[in-house]
Specification:
Rossmann fold; eight-stranded mixed β-sheet; 16 helices; about 425 residues; 14 strands; alpha/beta; 3 domains
């Protein structure tokens, strides 16, 4: 079986490589020549555990190819996946120009039946627009070629995307055609041997499912952060509350950990896009608007604690930052809380030393050189008046109190993810400030 993946970003690269792992012949297409040349050499543009070795193995075995020429990949191709970016416009709606351009180019050059699949997260109604553009290109050629469109949203978590694709909880496919359904069922068969389902449905439902899933998870996060803020005001401990409600099987333990807000490429963008879709249909998603508002405020919570502790006198204070990416096991800093926290600290006159296992280079262009970036977590602690834990990387979980005692000016920790034990820190004479405690 031969397929084409258009777009070698996060979704496209993981998707293409994972299909190649099952023996499918995969061509990954991108207009960025530098990126394609690097991929041919085994240099991948993203940080994702396990992906680099998979890319190398499948390129070496001839199952995975990278090119800038879309036309040459369409010969005998059964499925084309559009995995290009859908960045948010200023009004929050998804920008579909790249998706439409892919449909236009495939319609212009395809010579046989193909299933055109939108893998990118796209608003409801996108498949209909794709189908119209595709058909217009065929009409220009006076071609009676048949094709089908389908929606196949991705549910990949950064940091565990390879595992998510190879062993999915479910696969959602929206299509109007039994022929397309049969082809996609064959393509995905190796991934559902674990007994988890392929859910076939109408296209609008598939398009909405991805937005609804991410919005529900974002809602759980913002709800718990709201409760955490209330806990501080009434003298409750959010960790006890979390355990109390998480034991209810209807609620569960996932996504109810309080912190400093969600970030990344999906939750912020998808919540905005779903709100915009509803507004366009003259319906207001009040819950999601509140979710977004809570999250925006939550990103400043840890800064507010630091500001209050130092009585607003942050000028010249040395602040250590552990963690820059929006979550562990990725270098992605899109909408990361660290950006808000650091910029506020810099504006207040603080000096920042920051360390992250993967995201330092990303931070240099997103935040700038006002920050001193270190190659080691302990180096960031030298002469620190306080430490802020922003991202819960594994290497931050166990503290070396003797080293910290020697390096830091003041033994103060602001824990943005509640990963430390306040009682243990008190035993070593550290002052500790968490979320909702």
């Amino acid at each position: 079986m031969k397929i084409t993946i258009v777009g070698t970003g996060y979704v496209g690269l993981v998707t293409g490589t994972s299909f190649a792992e099952t023996g499918v012949l995969v061509n990954c297409v991108d207009i960025d020549e530098k990126k394609i040349n690097n991929l041919k050499k085994g240099i991948i543009p993203i940080y994702e555990p396990g992906l680099e070795k998979m890319v190398e193995r499948n390129v070496r075995n001839g199952r995975l190819n990278f090119t800038t020429n879309l036309k040459e990949t369409l010969n005998n191709c059964e499925v084309v996946f559009s995995a290009v970016g859908t960045p948010p416009d200023e009004d929050g709606s998804a920008d579909l120009k790249y998706v439409m351009e892919v449909a236009r180019e495939v319609g212009k050059n395809v010579e046989d039946y193909v299933v055109f699949v939108t893998k990118s997260t796209v608003p409801i109604g996108t498949a209909k627009k794709v189908k119209n553009i595709f058909q217009k290109e065929l009409d220009k050629r006076n071609s009676n070629l048949t094709f089908d469109v389908a929606s196949n949203p991705e549910f990949l978590k950064e940091g565990s995307a390879v595992e998510d694709f190879l062993r999915p909880d479910r696969i959602v496919i929206g299509t109007e055609s039994k022929k397309a359904e049969k082809i996609l069922k064959r393509l995905y068969k190796p991934f559902v041997l674990n007994g988890h389902p392929i859910l076939f449905m109408d296209i609008p439902s598939a398009e909405l499912t991805k937005y609804a899933a991410n919005s529900m998870l974002a809602t759980k996060i913002s709800f718990m952060n709201d409760i955490a803020n209330l806990c501080e005001l009434v003298g409750a401990n959010v960790n006890n509350v979390r355990r109390g409600i998480g034991s209810d099987s209807r609620i569960g333990h996932k996504f109810i950990y309080p912190g400093i807000g969600y970030g990344g490429s999906c939750f912020p963008k998808d919540v905005k896009a779903l709100i915009k879709t509803a507004d366009n249909n003259k319906y207001s998603l009040q819950v999601l608007k509140a979710v977004e508002n809570v999250n925006n405020k939550q990103k400043s919570v840890i800064y507010n604690k630091v500001y209050k502790y130092f009585d607003g006198k942050l000028e010249g204070k040395n602040i250590a930052i552990w963690g820059l990416s929006f979550k562990p096991n990725t270098d992605d800093m899109r909408e990361a809380p660290s950006i808000i926290i650091i910029k506020k600290l810099l504006k207040a006159g603080a000096n920042i030393k920051a360390y992250d296992p993967a995201a330092v280079e990303e931070a240099k262009w997103r935040i700038g050189e006002e920050v001193e970036y270190t190659d080691d977590k302990n180096e960031a602690l030298i002469d620190a008046d306080a430490l802020i834990l922003v991202t819960e990387w594994s290497e931050f979980r166990v503290l070396n109190y003797k080293v910290m005692d020697k390096l830091m000016n003041n033994k103060i920790i602001f824990d943005g993810r509640n990963i430390y034990d306040p009682k243990e820190l008190e035993e070593f004479n550290f002052k500790y400030y968490g979320i909702g405690l």
